[in-house]
């Protein structure tokens, strides 16, 4: 698919869990187990979105949880076939709008230190480096903590 014009964002639903779980295996070296996504879909204070086409095919997803006044991005991924189409950017912007609408103060996430593509995306979205979590990932790699204040989004 060359354009994401026909791809819509919507709330993640129970029927999406299998496709998300399969995508997770392709997108991350340390994937969440599939049942984590089902649990997140029904947990309180969550914001979970998928990007799908008119046939229902999954292209990208974002899972986030509210921690007080911070919307914490837990997962954002674009499937291999749909990369470089701006879907992660669309999902992040939708999460930011959600945070603004609910009166949040910030949006925060962790990203692998070595994931330069993701770090550059978040920097282009005006996220600042706010810290580092040593050995955050199972393989011992550090995570960068990046955040954006809601006031900067208005």
- Specify the helix fraction band: 25-40%
> In what order do the strands lie side by side in the largest sheet?
1-2-3-4-5-7-6
The secondary-structure element order is: EHHEEEHEHEE
Q: In terms of per-residue confidence, which ranges show pLDDT below 50 for 5 or more consecutive residues? A: none
Q: Give the overall shape, derived from the CA principal axes.
A: globular
> What is the average of the pLDDT values?
92
Query: Which quaternary structure do these chains form?
Result: single chain
SSE-based structural type: alpha+beta
What's the count of strands? 7
Q: C-alpha Rg, in Å?
A: 15 Å
- Helix run count: 4
Distance between the termini: 33 Å
Query: What is the percentage of strand-forming residues?
Result: 25-35%
Largest sheet: 7 strands, mixed
Structural description of this entry:
The chain is α+β, with helices and mostly antiparallel strands. The protein contains 4 helices and 7 strands; from the N terminus they run E-H-H-E-E-E-H-E-H-E-E. The chain has helices at residues 17-27, 34-42, 87-101, 116-124, and strands at 8-11, 46-52, 58-67, 70-78, 106-112, 128-133, 143-149. A 7-stranded mixed β-sheet has the order 1-2-3-4-5-7-6, sandwiched between helices. A hairpin with a 5-residue loop joins strand 2 (46-52) and strand 3. Helix 1 crosses helix 2 (34-42). It is globular and about 40 Å long. The N and C termini lie far apart (33 Å). The mean pLDDT is 92.
């Amino acid at each position: 698919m060359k354009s994401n014009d026909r791809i819509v964002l919507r709330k993640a639903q129970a029927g999406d869990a299998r496709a998300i779980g399969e995508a997770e295996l392709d997108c991350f070296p340390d994937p969440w187990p599939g049942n984590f996504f089902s649990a997140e879909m029904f947990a309180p204070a969550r914001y979970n979105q998928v990007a799908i086409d008119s046939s229902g095919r999954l292209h990208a997803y974002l899972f986030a949880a509210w921690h007080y006044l911070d919307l914490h991005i837990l997962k954002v991924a674009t499937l291999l076939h749909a990369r470089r189409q701006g879907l992660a950017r669309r999902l992040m912007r939708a999460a930011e709008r959600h945070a603004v609408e609910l009166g949040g103060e910030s949006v925060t996430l962790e990203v692998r230190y070595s994931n330069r593509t993701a770090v550059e995306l978040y920097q282009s979205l005006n996220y600042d480096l706010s810290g580092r979590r040593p050995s955050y990932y199972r393989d011992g790699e550090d995570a960068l903590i990046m955040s954006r204040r809601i006031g900067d989004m208005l």
